[in-house]
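Sequence design from tokenized structure. All designs in this work follow the same two-part layout: the structure record, then the generated sequence. An example of the structure record is given first.
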């Protein structure tokens, strides 16, 4: 079972503060970031404007994305992750 959308055609102007760490050739790559998304002044054709705030941590090994803050809004939808929650997304490799 996968996410019910193949692609999100969202458009935003993103500003971020981030810290990335790794050693050698990107071994143990880790990124912590706070992002702010603003709707763009000019919208790309076929795209949907989105605004929001995100706080995340991505670790390449073991391929985990933690969303500690998530708020976004489009003209037809919105989502908010309560501050007390962490959404953990882990990609499972099959084959």
């Amino acid at each position: 079972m996968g996410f019910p959308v193949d692609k999100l055609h969202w458009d935003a102007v993103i500003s971020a503060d981030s810290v990335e760490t790794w050693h050698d050739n990107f071994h143990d790559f880790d990124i912590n970031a706070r992002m702010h998304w603003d709707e763009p002044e000019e919208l790309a054709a076929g795209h949907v404007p989105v605004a929001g705030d995100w706080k995340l941590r991505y670790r390449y090994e073991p391929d985990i994305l933690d969303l500690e803050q998530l708020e976004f809004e489009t003209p037809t939808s919105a989502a908010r992750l309560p501050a007390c929650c962490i959404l953990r997304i882990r990609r499972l490799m099959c084959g």
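The longest strand covers residues 27-38. We note this feature because it recurs in several other targets discussed in the main text.
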